[in-house]
Structures are given as C-alpha cells and as structure tokens.
Write a structure and sequence with these properties.
Elements (H helix, E strand, L loop, with lengths): L16 H10 L4 E2 L6 H5 L12 E4 L3 H13 L4 E4 L13 E4 L6 E4 L4 E5 L4 H9 L15 H6 L7 H4 L6 E7 L5 E5 L4 H10 L5 E8 L5 E10 L3 H11 L7 E9 L14 E9 L3 H14 L4 E2 L2 E4 L4 H4 L8 E8 L4 H11 L8 E6 L21 E8 L5 H14 L21 H5 L4 H14 L20
Parallel strand pairs: 2-4, 3-4
Antiparallel strand pairs: 1-2, 5-6, 6-9, 7-8, 7-9, 10-12, 10-13, 10-14, 11-12, 11-16, 15-17, 16-17
Helix pairs in contact: 8-11
Length: 476
Amino acid sequence: MPVIEQTRPTVGPTLAAGVVTGLADSVKGPVFLPGDPGYAEEAEGFDRSVVHHPAVIVGAAGADDVMAAVRFARDHGLGVAVQATGHGVGPPADGALLISTRRMDGHRVDPERRTVRLEAGVLWREVIQSAARHGLAPLNGSAPFVGAVSYTLGGGIGVLSRRYGYAADHVRSIEVVTADGELRTASEAENTDLFWALRGGKGNFGVVTSLEVELVEVSRIYGGGLFFPAESIRDVLHFYRTWVTEVPDELSSSFLMMPWPEVPEVPRELRGRFAMHLRLSYLGSPRDGARLVRPLREIATPLLDTVTDLPYTEVGTIHNDPPTPGSYHIDNFQLTHLDHDAVEAILALVGPGSDSAVGIEIRHLGGALARPPRLPSAVARTAGQFQLYSAGVLGIGADEAVHAGHDRVVQTLAPWNSGMRTLNFMAGVAHTGPEDVRQAFTPQAYERLVAVKTARDPGNMFRFNHNIPPAAGGGR
C-alpha cells in the first residue's frame, strides 16, 4: 500500500496586513500568520500525522473571540477548523482559519445540580479533580489528558459507559457559534435540531464554546490491569470471551497485546517481554469486584496485577495511555461478537510471535451503550459487542509495514466486522473522510445529519473535521 500523501491547496488565500490587523484588534487572544513566532506550535496537535497550514490562527480566549473569528472567516471566504488538543484530528486545515481553543480551559462544578460547565479547551484531568471534591465524576475517557468537549461531542466511551452510557447522553445544553457568527444555545428546549446533531456529529454544525454535562455519584472504582505473559495469552483470551458475556453493566474491560520495551517507564516485570494488558474497572464494592475478577486471576498467573480499590482521581492509571504526541496510522470498527475463531484470528494478527507493526485494542461494549438514552442523539446504538481500535506508529522507517498491517487486520477480521465505526476512534491521515464518517451513524441518523448540515452550514464552512457534507447544491 503506498504511503498516504496529504493534499495541499495549489493557491492559498492572501490576507492583507490591514485585514488581519482588524481581526487581531477584535479578539482578546493572539492571532498568528504563517511565519509568525508561535504559529507552528499553535497549529500542532497530539496526532502529528496531520500537519496544518492554516491561512490564519486565532487563539480564542472566549466565546466572543470565536464569534469574531467565524465572522471574519465568513466575510473572507475561509473555511473554519477547530483544535483543542488534536487527538481526533481530521484533514489538514490548509488555507483555513484555525480556531485554537486551548486557552478556553475553564470549568465550573455545580455539586447541587450534579453538573459541570465545560469550556471548549478544558482537559478531563482538570474536571476529574474538581468533581472528586464533591464525590462526583464525569463520564471521561480512558486518557485524562484529552479535551473534554470534543470527546463528548463524538459520543464518548469510557470506563463508566457500560453503566451510564455515552458521555453525549448526559449533555444538558450546548453553546455553539454557527456559520452566521451568532452564539446560540442548543438544548432539549431550544435549537433542538442542533442539540440532536451536535451530540454525535461533533463540529460539523458550528464551533462549540461550552457544554453543560451531568456528573455521576462515583468517588472510587475497583480497577487496574492484569498483565499476562505470552505463554498464557491464548488461554486467557478464550476464557475472557465467555466470561465477558456474563458480567454486569458495572464492569468494563478491554485488552491489548504488545512487546514491552526495556525502558525505565515500563514496570520491571514487563520490560523486554511480550504481554497482554487486560484492563478492568468495576463500579461496586472491592469485595464484589474481587469476586468478579477472581476467575481471570485463576486462569493464569499474571506478571503484574494492579487491580485494586482506587480513588476516581486515579482512573487514568487503568489504561495508562501514553501522553506523548506522535504520528499515527489509525483504524477502527465494531465487532459483532468475539468467538473462538475471532480470538484465533486476533492472536495470529498481533499475538506472540506475530511481529506486527500494528497494535490492536478491543473494548467490551454493550450495557447502557446499547440501550436508547432518555434524550435521543445522533450517536448510533448498534448490536456490536466490541470496539476494535488499531494503531501503528508512522515516521520511524516502518510505514509500509504499518499500512500492510492495517490491511491484514481489516481483511482477516472481515467476518466479525459489523460495518460500524466509532467517531471518537477516527483520527489522522486515514479513514477520516466523509465515506468513513458515514459508517459511524445509522442510515436514518446520517440522512438527518445531512439535513441539519444543509440548513445550518450550507456552504460547508466547518469542513476541516469528520465532515458530513451538506446536500448537493448546498455548498462545496
């Protein structure tokens, strides 16, 4: 498979110095042009497989800055891109106006109402700490260093989701700047089309400046990881695939397999070994959690067992996702089920001795993720029982092997592929185009999303994202 090339516009927009000065005078945050000090750093995101070359960057300090930026883009024929951390990056924002929301990092917990107001650039780790002071928790993802708003708008699957559903299910209201540059509130009572579409459709309909979301009464969790050696992985996985069908909604799990490097950051027991990391989290008493996990501990002896009673502020230690930015090739799809043949296929792809350049993580779904929420949204409820996420590192001399590895994953696991993707697991240089995005929704939901897009953004101003194009004739 050939290396994927990022396309660049042949002619970029030219912005007169006076025009840009006018923009800078209208906002509180900084404005960057190509070549300015800080421009490259402001454009850079977590996933560096995509490099943005915007015509201008606005480091928004608040909703007023976002309104001014969108109006400027409207008046000068620019597309608008938005970036907080760049974990879920889409196409390169070449020739666009890029709104960087990292300075909009405020949040406010209301313990009586059990809600939190999130500004566009706040990270989950800040929210987790604040909510914990009141015995509450947000429905964050596995990595606390990810932006809370974009994660939530994409659906949001985390360690509490089998019990409480998608993060998007718990949004009460949204403040969003639409293509006309106006700030609107979307909720169950007003702008209901936007409220439905933004919860699942992400940034296709405007720039979200804040969310109000519900918190849940969780202060502790029984969780951590069981790390099994190469020789035990086959037995563990075959046991796991049956065990997981009988666990309560309060228990979430996932696994990955990999050769662990010999570096100080890796626990001594794992250095230089191939091991499987089985991640577990249980909402209940440590005694009940230990009872549920005991069969896994008995099927084989772990190299390392970190499953214990944790304060929720340490939830990020369960997955221990690496916080280091890099360049990645990513794919994802949902599996209908996990049977004997599926486990054997996964072992052949990425198990001990496979020498794969691609890693696979598989998360157990079901529970509240499969049930209709109180407030319908664009997020798809499917029969897929597991979420597969595959990733390989680019730029280290193995790009062809990474591309070939992803092709093998798709081909080998085709019999179990439900045909559905998950928007929050789509990022980077591959599988983020409109046809891939379509696979994250039911046909009925996608048709409705196109209708909302056509009504709210007919010119597709917000297209540098997981794009849902307007209907033909509605814009670009």
